Amino acid sequence: MPVKRLCELLSVSRSWYYGKLGTGRKVEKDVALRDAIERTVLEFPGYGYRRVTKALQRDGWEVNHKRVLRVMREESLLCQLRRGFKVTTDSSHSLRRYPNLLKGAIIDAPDRAWSADITYVRLPTTFCYLASIIDDYSRYCVGWHLSRWIDTRLTLGALQMALASRRPGPGLIHHSDQGVQYASSEYVACLEQTGAKISMAAVGNPYENAKAESFFRNLKMEEVYLKDYRTFEEAQQNIGQFIEEVYNRKRLHSSLGYLPPVEFEAAYTLRAGS
Asked: pTM of the entire structure?
């Protein structure tokens, strides 16, 4: 039985329980470590033991992933999240399609390439839809928009946020799937006005838009699947808070050397200015 559950049944604190097992600084440190692990998991529910380990090390703990895994197993803190799937890409259209410009491209700075995609969010009686744009270099979510409708207004909302906040120079690669929302004349015109190069993944190949897919996977596992949004407004508030305050600024990304995107971009700026 997990220690946490046992203490609840006995109506005692974990510090009291561990105190009965032994005394001294080692027991106190073990209790403190377990509390630190639980706080980390409560703040980042989708973290596995490796990310929890990195988060603890950033906070000054001298601990390895084997010990963290053992504690998380004992305390039933390993995440088990449900998954779902719904098609959001309509590529059955006669609009122009564009080649994949990211194949073989080396992205070595922010705002050189953005990846865009759409996913759905379940509400009690319907769905709403989220469009996002991810910077390929830093994984920073530069733009997002939640809507009740899956149309060009959805994707344009995310694009307009990204352009307003980042102001990229000409030559930016904008990568997406071949969905009608990205191939529409209105969306293409907005990209062309900014001097962006339009890039699209092949139909039926999610690996060609892997960074955007990864963002949605993390968002759903660490935010959406953990909550039952009752209204569109509740979903918008919670998703926005997760993207802006957690994903961009706090969440550790293994592909970035276990840094959050905002720190990864700050490190780039520091190197570029030296």
From this structure: 0.72
